[in-house]
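My hope is that you will study the record closing this message with an eye to the fold:
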Amino acid sequence: MGRKSDRKHSKKNKGGYSSGNDSASLARRILQFLDANFGQEYNAKQIIKQLDIRDALNKGGVEPVLYQLVDAGKVSRNARNYFSSTKDPDFITGTVDFVNPRFAFIIPDDPKAAEGDILIKEADLKQALNGDKVRVMVFPVKGKTGRTEGRVLEILERDRDEFVGRVEISPRFAFVVPDFKKMHKDIFVHRGDLMGAEHNEKVIVKLTEWREDDKNPTGKVIRVLGKAGLHEVEIHSIMAEFGLPFEYPKEADEEANAIPEKISAKEIKARKDFRDVLTFTIDPVDAKDFDDAISYRELENGNLEIGVHIADVTHYVKPKTALEKEAFNRATSVYLVDRTIPMLPERLSNGLCSLRPNEDKLTFACVFEMDRNAKVINHWIGRTIIHSNRRYAYEEAQECIDTQSGDYFQELTLLNELAKKIRKQRFDKGAVNFETVEVKFKLDEKGTPLGLFVKERKDIHKLIEEFMLLANKYVAEFIYRKNQGADTFVYRTHDSPDLDRLETFSGFAKRFGHQMDVTNVQKISAALNKLMDEIQGKPEQNVLEQLAIRSMAKAKYTTEPKGHFGLAFPHYTHFTSPIRRYPDMMVHRLLEHYLEGGKSPEAESWEQKCVHSSEREKRAADAERASIKYKQVEYMSLAEQKDYEGIVSGVTEWGVFVEITETKCEGMIRVQDMDDDYYEFDERNMRLIGTRSKKMITLGDKVLVRVVNTDIDRRTIDLEFAENDRKKSRPRAFN
């Protein structure tokens, strides 16, 4: 039957619906359309409509041409006379990045498997959500957007099935509106599955079902957090949103509580004894987990012995225990605006392992012999026991140096001089000086922000930083040199920046009036440092620092012995914070193994732990940023209603981001609210241009803005340009 039909249409074609040239042109148009809509089926009438063919001759030619393409094997036809492309697709696996309700991108597991990320329209996501692992069919021809497109075939692994959100209850049913910005579907909840939650309360909801024809997933409430807007509720919402634990597992806590405090004579004998050497800790005023201490003594040859002693966590946390399992799972302590979610239980983090003053403590150390110019003459790495003489808060230690008085001020001063010399040596070798702005809040007993301030980095912070960096560097190089990098170890690496991204950043800096030469690869560090020095204390400092960091590669943990661009170290690791970072525990274990003459273990399992730790580090950073953003939004909702000076920190087609200089809070002015003109987005130059007035709003512009709305649920601040010449929503520059 099919062949008769084919012959019938061939005869029609001989009847001459169109000339050979027209037929070839029409065939190309049809084939391009079907290839561009790979996986879709169309009949002849639909193709005529889609291609907007209006003349009778070409309309009549569509069906014969389709049959010619079928005969040629370029198009397939089903029994209902619907046609589709026969191109061979590629199949890849990747992770969903659900950027907005209309489409998502799939980030391929293998970057070589596709030309960039793959765009997937919402209808083709097969109910995949942000972060899910999926299998994708990649269309053989790029879509109208010019990007590679595809369709999700299968969800391989859900990233999460629990979400935090606000309950909206109607008489017959309820929905949970998720806080997570990349969850674009409200979750349907039967009234009987609300667990007593009331309208407008925050809850944790677990997905239970999502049938193929349903627009929204169904879920059930598993935890009621409380009324939206309350401090404790919102912080718990952030913890749940990022999957942070609310309590420590009972079994791990019991293990920690069972560890004896007394240090045996045998253990002391196995270590270098530094208990009679001057030793102190310097930490934030509210810290309780002191994981590093510095010892100081002058040697008979006139040199100095500086010891960096680190809490010996792995002496207490043994492999294959509940403590170890939970430490690995958390992988890092998380510092929210009002609390710490520790990697280790309090008994260890604030007790046994914490290098508290006037107590014997077990440590792992890197001890340096230095001359007065901070040149390292010798170093030793091994286990020690210490007895801290003094616990300093940063402010106390800085005051000792500034006033040249107080406990051990002479030793602190000399250490500070050494640190400055070590720092200079580091920058002379190409290290990059990123001094990021850190926002802190003063909270009342209910968690309401009373004040906001930028944390100041003083000499004492840099002193501790330099000695920790030095210890980390020497530990990494010690292991690398043992066997030229062939031994399995955990490194902290940082790739060189991508020159295209640096070029883009250089263009941004130029808009703020700063020149930066990125043409000489060997001098990129010097160019970045020059810029960082220029912007210190200026309104654009935070904006440019954040843009610079985004243009850099991300530091990560890996067993590959690569270098660290930002620090200009050939090899670097994390050795100095095992109370709060699991990779440091990994380093301690491997270091002990090699010091005792052990052979290199296989790398694969250690690499998997590195990947896990890097992912957990990102989760912690995202949660910390979310808690800061929440408090910034709350602070601006309570702040004085006035015009604020700000800097345009971002420009998109839908709005202008402005960082308020006084509070370092970022808000957005929506293009749709800018009614003084119609603005078009110039993506290449990151600016908006008024079609009538030709007024330009560009990255780096100094403007006056006012707050018009704050939304704690979405953690957003809506701004408008301050009025000027009695016209609403017009940007006004100031000097």
